[in-house]
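Researcher: Good morning. I'm working through a list of sequences from a screen, and I'd like to move beyond sequence-only analysis. For each chain I'm collecting a predicted structure so we can compare shapes side by side. This is the next one on the list. No need for commentary yet; just the structure.
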Amino acid sequence: MAAVLVYLAAVAASQSLPVRLLYDGLAPLPPYRWVHPPGDRAGDNRRPEPRIGTVPFDPQGSRAAEVDTDDDQALVTFPAGALAGRAGETSVRIMITPLDPATVAPVPAGRRFEGNAYRIEATYSASATPAVLAHPVTVVLRYAVHGTAVLQSDGGGWKLLPVTRFDGSQQLLVTADSLGTFVPAGP
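Model: Good morning. Structure tokens for this chain:
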């Protein structure tokens, strides 16, 4: 009980400090959720779900916001001002839709898909017209086993994006100048 009280006192005293007091390490990740699971996962697979979020505007422009899927397999971060304003609009609707990547475009030579594709769309809430990116966004994808790259499609084939890998977290991070469909890939 004394240790709990000391810890709680330390937390209360450090509320203004940017310090993480306790780090227990990485927890095991839940099983990957597939749109089209491989044969050995078909029996226990849970389907991923789409996500809808909103990025509001304030007088300075679009606010900083993140929209992620409930299963933490896809996330997009919009920095402040990332979405161009438009007369009569107060927000932008963001949709993240999981897809089977093979239905988007064939896998490029020398690569394999390492998870679901995620279509990320942004539309102005009032008019439902496509929103315009004013600045790049960050897309984070969780991969199933051996992801080393992120591919993006805007309706044609796939293009390779420069990636930052988070070792131990099975996540890949990319900075994107446009929205579209993204998929983790491996060699």
